[in-house]
Amino acid sequence: MSPRDDDDTPRRGTPPRRGSSRDLPDAETGEEQRPRDGQPRDGQPRDGQPRDGQQRDGQQRDGHSRDGQPPRDGRRGRSSISEARAYTPRGRTVAERGRLPRSGRTTDPFRPALQVLDGGEGDTAPRTRGRGRGAEPPPEEPPKQRGKRAAEPRAEQPKKAEPRSGTGGDRSASDRTRSSSARTPKEAGPRRTVTVKRGSERDGRDRDARRARPVPPEPPKLASSSRRLRLGTVLALSLFVTIGVRLVVLQLGTSEQEVAQLLDLREKRLSTVQLPAPRGSILDTNGEVLAHSVEARYVSADPENTALQKDIPGIAAQLAPLVGVAQSELAENMQRKQVLGRWLQFRYLARGVDVGVADRIEALALPGIYTHSDERRDVPGKDLAANLIGFTGDDHHGLEGLEARYDDLLHGTDGKRIFEIGKGNLNKPIPGGYEQYTAAQPGNSLKLTIDQYVQFDVQRILKKAAEKAKATVAGAVVMNAETGEVVAQASYPPYNAAKPQDFDPVERIDVPTAVVTDPGSTHKALVFGAALQEGIITPESTLAIGPAISRGGFPFEDSHPQDKGTLMTMEGLLALSSNVGTILIADQLGKEKLYEYQKLFGLGESTGEGMPGEADGELLKPEDWSGSASGSVPVGHSVSATLVQMAAAYGAIANDGVYTQPHLIKETISGVDGEVTPSAAPETHKVLDADKAAQLRTMMEAVVESDVGTGKSARVAGYRVAGKTGTGKMLVDGQYTSHYASSFVGMAPADDPKFVIAVSMDVANGSGGEVSGPAFSEMMSYTLLHYGVPPSGTKSPTFKIHP
Questions:
Q1: Quick one: 40 and 57 in the same domain?
Q2: How far apart are CA 702 and CA 712, in angstroms?
Q3: Strands 282-283 and 445-448: what pairing?
Q4: Rounded alpha-carbon distances, angstroms, from residue 492 to 230, 473, 508, 591, 727
Q5: SS3 state of residue 343
């Protein structure tokens, strides 16, 4: 049971009334009246115990011993922890030893006991309430005022006083038990109040010392996070504003002279070397190299080198035989030169120099002469497909042919090396200095549809025939009839692509795409095809003709004249290349339809096979026809076309009436990862029905297989051949020349065509059958054997010239 329980009988007398005053001072003497523990209120001692104020254990009431010395603990009178344990049943001490109540404050029932434990003084300095801050002691009252206040009765205290923070609080259960058991029922009785003299001199000094105890300093305040954040924000904004202002000053406030000085300083301290990107290769359809780049070196000079300027003739004389450049040209390039107000510090002397030659130049240690990595375009076949491939310049950019047409794809992206150099004799990269290196990205490679073996043989045959016929120019095209791939495309005269500067520009043109001529009689096959498709004629049709016909006052005669009214078959008209019969069929077809089929066969616009500068040719629109146009247009005059256009038109006849765009590019190969990308599919469109195309091919066989045909020189042993001869005029700057454009365009095997070959030569004399027919025969024979095309399984039909 708790010591505070009301049923617990107190051991030390009857408890006082709740809220009564226990330590009021005497009104007359100013001394406190305090009941002693265990004493009755009448002041008589009990059980022989001395009262307060008498001698006890050798001490006087005022706190001094019998011999006049103060007690060793320096306290007033007799005070011990036993007094602090003397509690009433309600937990109050019997005496508060001199502490006066504060006005307006309830008495803490536990504070006196704690003060006894702290030193036994009732009016010591109050304990601190706050954290880290001492409470100021109450001002000392004069003795009179204290006596006056002591005479006044103490105000009634509330039943339950609030404990002060840090100074009191509820007692523990053990303390309450000891307090309750300290008094017995025998000791219960009336209490008496005794007076205690207020303090001695020593006690006053102790009290003054405690009141004068220094107040501890306040602890430092913790830093504020919000203040740090604001400070950091201000500093960051100030930094950005400073940088921004500086940038504005540099951009707008810097004078032109300062900018020029900075640029000049930069140019003097930094040297830039271009790193050429490896150029992609040009390959044939089998992956064989037609043109590629090989490792080489370039030789350069620094004209600002003092030692070089002192001995230019001697240095040029040593370099000339090594690089293959004239000594005078080398000496000129070593001279100082000013460009845009700046003296050049770099000039090329030679490019594409062999690595071995460059090593010999380095061994000479010539002042101001340097070598560096370079590449050289190598054409292994020399003149093989040179008119197609073209060539590159010193800067490794394409200038003509496919090299120029696909330069962006082949060239790649050049790299760059920028490094810091010294001055004077230390004009070399500074070790550990500034350096920036950008690697070059190699270019892509082109794989062509050209077969180098067929190309070589076609060029050989064309050159032999052209020289025999004394042709000024000549061309040949070999095309796959089914796919439109150009297997070979040759020009005469050829040139060495490794040394293009040794040839005139006219000699470097690609004849099949750049030279425009009248197709002549090769155009007649297109007229017959359109008439078959429109139902105007059939293979069994006949037509009465004469030796000549007039249109617009201009006569058109046949090379094989027939008597007037002579009936001829359709194959007979083609075999003898009748101008009269073709004009009569075109009259029935009409100029609008003829123009329409010319467009369908691909005339009047470039084929887009891939060569740069391909000519469009020209067609005469129906509204522009003159009186003689109805005679000239059907027989292939007043029309201009390239050899590639005519090969593609005959390809439509060979491919069952479907026109397929001719093309040179088969696929591209990435220079970075080797990824292969096929070229876009060629454009196709229908021109003739398949049966009409087959009928036309059979009629065209008569030109070659008939004993009287104009193209019998184009026969190929073991194969059926269909084709047409032509003799037109060559156009130069829009004007006809005195020469003839003698051509032959045909296909084989005629019953199932695989290849179409077109041959044309500009000669002074000679028809297409006489000049180009034999060349066609050799080219077709080699091509069919090279690709293993089996001979024709059937023989040509028997052709009738007359019904």
A1: yes
A2: 9
A3: parallel
A4: 85, 5, 9, 36, 19
A5: strand
Indicate if 416 and 501 belong to the same structural domain: no
CB-neighbour burial class of residue 195 (10 A; exposed 0-12, middle 13-18, buried 19+): middle
Based on the domain organization, do 443 and 459 belong to the same domain?
Answer: no
Cis peptide before 749 (omega within 30 of 0): yes
Q: Which of 448, 468, 501 lies at the terminal end of a domain, its last residue? A: 448
> And the tokens for 475?
């061309």
> What's the pLDDT at 736?
64
**How far apart, in whole angstroms, are the C-alpha atoms of residue 589 and residue 534?**
8
Instruction: Report the distance separating Cα 463 and Cα 510, nearest Å.
Output: 14
Taking CA atoms, 21 is separated from 34, 257, 700, 701, in Å, by 10, 101, 149, 150
Query: 651: Cβ–Cβ under 8 A, 6 or more apart, which residues?
Result: 479, 481, 484, 659, 660, 662, 747, 756
Using DSSP, state whether 520 is helix, strand or coil.
helix
Phi-psi group of 734: left, alpha or beta (phi > 0 → left; psi -120 to 50 → alpha; rest → beta): left
Q: Are residues 464 and 444 in the same domain?
A: no
- List for the chain the helix, strand, coil content (%; round to 5): 35, 20, 45
Domain of 108 in residue numbering reads as 1-213
How far is it, in rounded angstroms, from Cα 590 to Cα 598?
Answer: 12
Q: Cα separation of 344 and 625, whole Å?
A: 63
Query: For residue 338, what is the domain's CATH number?
Result: 3.90.1310.10
Average pLDDT of span 304-316: 90
Distance CA 178, CA 189 (A): 20
Per the structure, the count of domains in the chain is: 3
- Say if CB 455 and CB 782 are below 8 A apart: no
Mean pLDDT confidence for 527-541: 96
DSSP state of 132: T
Distances (CA, A) of 611 to 199, 486, 559: 128, 12, 36
**Pair (441, 461) in one structural domain:** no
Q: Residue 246 falls within a domain, yes or no?
A: no
Tell me, yes or no, whether 68 lies in a domain.
yes
User: pLDDT-based confidence at 342, cuts 50/70/90?
Assistant: confident
Residue 794: left (phi > 0), alpha (psi -120 to 50), or beta?
Answer: beta
Instruction: Give the separation between CA 467 and CA 493, rounded to whole angstroms.
Output: 9
> Residue 229 contacts by C-beta under 8 Å, 6 or more apart in sequence?
none
What does the block give as tokens for 760? 């044309």
List the alpha helices (DSSP H) in 590-628. 591-600
Dihedral, CA of residue 587, residue 591, residue 596 and residue 602, to nearest 10 = 90
**What is the CB-side half-sphere exposure of residue 707 using CA atoms within 13 A?**
2
H or E, element range at 758: strand 755-763
Could you give phi then psi for residue 149, rounded to 5 degrees? -70, -35
In a domain, 605, yes or no: yes
The tokens describing 679, both together, are 């070229």
| DSSP 8-class letter at 675 | -
Pairing, β 676-678 against β 665-669: antiparallel
pTM: 0.65
Phi, psi of 418, deg, nearest 5 = -115, 125
Say yes or no: 396 and 464 in one domain: no
Domain boundary among the residues 400, 430, 448 is at 448
Helix (H) or strand (E) holding 705: helix 690-705
The answer to whether residue 184 is domain-embedded is yes
Per-residue pLDDT at 82 exceeds 60:
no
Of 480, 450, 161, the C-alpha closest to 288 is 450
Q: 436's torsion region: left (phi>0), alpha (psi -120 to 50) or beta?
A: beta
Q: 466 and 342 in one domain?
A: no
Residue 314: pLDDT above 50? Answer: yes
Give CA angle at 208 (205, 209), nearest 5°. Answer: 85
The reply to whether 482 and 426 lie within a common domain is no
Once rounded to an integer, what is the mean pLDDT over residues 41-61? 42
Task: Answer whether 84's CB lies under 8 Å from 113's CB.
Answer: yes
